């Protein structure tokens, strides 16, 4: 059986108008041409589709069944066309995002939530891993874009500055330095530091900060997550340098304190990255552009004093 969409379209028009001539007029075709296409369709199916009663055409049983399926076929084509248009405009699709640990837990979810409100039909996946794994995912083309704090080798990557990453020194509220003003770096360096694992961007930033000032810090414990560091600091096991975004809740409930230290806070940024020379999908491009707009709105909100937690990039 050989049925084509052109024949089905003509068949539908004849069924709708109940006449070869009226269907031909509506389709801007000749009446013989319309009749010929319907005859070819009937021959392909092996059944008559119309019967003439008086001067009016009526659908046969086969014609009624074919009309039902034909309407479903064209409705599905219309839906397919709409989906393809939405894909080309970034309204549908899947975007894979990777983020370094702290960014993935505290920074990226609010941004993706704002994107989801504007693009509810785009499926998002977020892989929260260490910084080196994030960069490997990017270079291996396993994700569409990434958010991380430290990019030591931007080769083969397109990088854009994202939202601020403010590093502060934290301690238990009962720590002797919690009530001090302007603690010197030299005095701070004698405290016990709790650090993330080797390779962590925050750890590298912390060590470089003190090394450039010819100071060594005493490492008391190494932990593999920001959550573990916060718990250990709150328990009085030492102090730590952490992104401010990661401790907002603990500060609000008084479990942690930010120390007043010379040279702090240290102002850094989180960065967006994607593989250079790649051909992102429309949805991935929409997310990248949205995050740039999200950054700009966050910066504007900070300038006018609006709490950034309420800021969205939506319309």
Any key phrases for this structure?
315 residues; alpha/beta; Arc Repressor Mutant, subunit A; D-Maltodextrin-Binding Protein, domain 2; 3 domains; seven-stranded mixed β-sheet; two-stranded antiparallel sheet; 45% helix; disordered C terminus
Overview of this structure, please?
This protein has 315 residues and is α/β, with parallel strands linked by helices. It has three domains: 5-88, Winged helix-like DNA-binding domain superfamily/Winged helix DNA-binding domain (Arc Repressor Mutant, subunit A), CATH 1.10.10.10; 93-164 and 268-310, Periplasmic binding protein-like II (D-Maltodextrin-Binding Protein, domain 2, 3-Layer(aba) Sandwich); 165-267, Periplasmic binding protein-like II (D-Maltodextrin-Binding Protein, domain 2), CATH 3.40.190.10. It is 45% helix and 22% strand. The protein is built from eleven helices and eleven strands. The chain has helices at residues 5-17, 20-27, 31-45, 61-88, 101-118, 131-139, 185-188, 201-211, 226-234, 248-252, 282-304, and strands spanning 50-53, 56-59, 93-100, 122-129, 145-148, 157-171, 192-196, 218-223, 240-243, 257-258, 266-275. The strands form three sheets. Strands 3, 4, 5, 6, 9, 10 and 11 form a seven-stranded mixed sheet that branches. Helix 8 links the parallel strand 7 and strand 8. The longest helix is centred in the first third of the chain and has 28 residues, at 61-88. The two termini are 51 Å apart. The relative contact order is 0.14. Mean pLDDT is 90; it is low at 309-315.
């Amino acid at each position: 059986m050989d049925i084509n969409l052109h024949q089905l379209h003509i068949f539908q028009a004849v069924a709708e108008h109940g006449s070869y001539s009226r269907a031909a007029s509506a389709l801007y075709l000749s009446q013989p041409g319309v009749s010929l296409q319907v005859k070819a369709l009937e021959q392909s199916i092996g059944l008559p589709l119309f019967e003439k009663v008086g001067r009016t055409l009526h659908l046969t049983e086969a014609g009624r069944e074919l009309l039902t399926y034909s309407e479903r076929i064209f409705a599905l084509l219309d839906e397919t066309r709409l989906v393809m248009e939405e894909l080309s405009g970034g309204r549908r699709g899947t975007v894979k995002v990777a983020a370094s640990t702290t960014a993935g837990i505290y920074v990226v979810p609010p941004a993706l939530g704002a994107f989801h409100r504007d693009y509810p039909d785009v499926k998002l996946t977020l892989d929260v891993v260490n910084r080196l794994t994030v960069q490997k995912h990017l270079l291996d083309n396993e994700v569409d874009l990434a958010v991380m704090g430290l990019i030591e080798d931007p080769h083969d990557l397109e990088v854009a500055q994202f939202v601020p990453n403010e590093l502060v020194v934290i301690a238990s509220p009962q720590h002797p330095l919690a009530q001090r003003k302007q603690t010197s770096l030299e005095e701070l360096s004698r405290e016990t530091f709790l650090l993330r694992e080797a390779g962590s961007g925050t750890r590298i930033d912390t060590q470089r900060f003190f090394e450039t000032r010819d100071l060594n810090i005493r490492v008391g414990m190494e932990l593999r997550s920001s959550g573990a560091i916060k718990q250990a600091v709150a328990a009085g096991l030492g102090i730590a340098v952490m992104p401010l975004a990661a401790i907002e809740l603990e500060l609000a409930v008084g479990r942690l304190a930010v120390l007043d230290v010379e040279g702090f806070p240290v102002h850094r940024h989180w960065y967006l990255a994607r593989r250079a020379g790649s051909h992102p999908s429309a949805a991935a491009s929409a997310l990248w552009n949205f995050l740039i707009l999200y950054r700009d709105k966050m910066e504007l909100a900070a300038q006018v004093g609006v709490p950034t937690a309420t800021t969205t990039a939506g319309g």
